[in-house]
Amino acid sequence: MWMAELAARSGLPVPTIKYYLREGLLPPGVAVGATRARYDESHVRRLRLIRALVDVAQLRLDVVRSVLDGIDRARNRHEAVGTAHMRLSQTVTDDDPPSAESMQAVADLLDRNGWSLLPNSPHRIALAQALDAIARLGLPAEPDILDAYAHAMRDAASVELGLVAGTEDRELAVEHAVIGTLLLEPVLLTIRRIAQVNVSREQFPD
Amino acid sequence: MWMAELAARSGLPVPTIKYYLREGLLPPGVAVGATRARYDESHVRRLRLIRALVDVAQLRLDVVRSVLDGIDRARNRHEAVGTAHMRLSQTVTDDDPPSAESMQAVADLLDRNGWSLLPNSPHRIALAQALDAIARLGLPAEPDILDAYAHAMRDAASVELGLVAGTEDRELAVEHAVIGTLLLEPVLLTIRRIAQVNVSREQFPD
After folding, report:
1. Which of A100, A117, A166, A184 is the right S-S partner for A121, CB 3.0 to 4.6 Å?
2. B42 DSSP assignment
3. Which are the contacts of A204, defined by CB distance < 8 A and separation ≥ 6?
4. Mean pLDDT to the nearest integer, A179-187
5. Hey, CA dihedral for B182, A118, A93, A66, is it positive or negative?
6. Quick check: B93 pLDDT over 50?
7. Is B183 within 8 Å of A151 when comparing Cβ atoms?
């Protein structure tokens, strides 16, 4: 397809697509003559993924580039999804180093649940930092709460992965993972509040 | 206690406390002479709550004032917690009105789970808006996912409410609810990603 069709299919204006091409976020099309190029479905999918990362995840373009690089270098679908997740989380772990207590609490949580993480996984530090933030306000997160979340999220993840399981296409799997991870967050958090209101009404009928 | 002790106890600088007094966020102390006043434990707790709302929830001061007004007007602890929750969510619902389809999906979810919400609850609109955002990217959230979240969050809420159940003090209950709602969000979301990594490894061992 030509640029005009790519714009129509992706819903993005031509100048935006040209900008992504110049910035190397979108691979070039196949040149036809000096000034024209043909694009295919992979360009439509890549633009949809960029849009999800920019509009939904609200990532800066350099972070988007880093996510896309990781995806392109991954050896398989699982690694591509894992890489996208890690880069999405990397943005939150550049703050204070977490306390030894919280790092131990994370290690204990993983042990209790039979889980493991790569040594360089940002999730380990991100979780320890979140635990530190709560402890500073004098209300530490007890293992009971963490285990309740782990149990709840294990069940939810099995259903969520059904979304990705259907596709063998790497770009599509990553797009689903990004959308699933980021866009479903507000859904999950809002349902959490609705659950809190209703469970609270049952438990404290004052 | 005098202002100096209030500053030491709350960990906030005196000028900040004086600013909150001028803005009406912190009730005045009992005047002792023309320029001095005595404060008590309720001031320490209120300052801790303001700090949680400003630093953790990152709310603007006018929203903090609205949350505190709602708490002060509430008739009981349950209503105070509910009011705080509603004001915390109000900030996300000022965008586009949600689609009729998504509002129906929310109503169906509530029905299937035996839940109810006040007609003016912001959670209803916030959830419908989140569902619209996903549908726009061509990946609608199926009822299966929503029910998995509802089930997971119902279990988590029972444990979370254990945090609040111990206290009869309204200010403390609200502080715990705010901290629990907001500060535990990153904990829950990070544990979700850890669960996804581990469940994905089990389900796709490629």
Report:
1. A117
2. H
3. B77, B78, B161, B165
4. 77
5. negative
6. no
7. no
Residue A149: exposure state from Cβ atoms within 10 A (0-12, 13-18, ≥19): buried
Separation CA B100–CA B131 (nearest Å): 11
- Rounded CA-CA distance A43/A50 in Å is 10
Distance CA A199, CA A193 (A): 10
**A97: confidence class by pLDDT, cuts 50, 70, 90:** confident
Tokens encoding A42: 């992979």
Question: Could you tell me the pLDDT band of residue A48, with boundaries at 50, 70 and 90?
Answer: confident
**Taking CA A11 as the corner, what is the angle to CA A10 and CA A16, rounded to the nearest 5 degrees?**
85
Q: What is the ipTM of this complex?
A: 0.74
Chain A residue nearest residue B189, CA to CA: A185
Chain A: give the shortest CA distance to residue B35, in Å: 31
pLDDT, position B205: 62
Give residue for tokens 């998504």: B102
Please name every residue paired with A32 in a beta bridge, in sequence order, or none if there are none.
A36
For the segment B15-34, the average pLDDT, to the nearest whole number, is 92
User: Of the candidates B121, B134, B186, which has its C-beta nearest A130's C-beta?
Assistant: B186
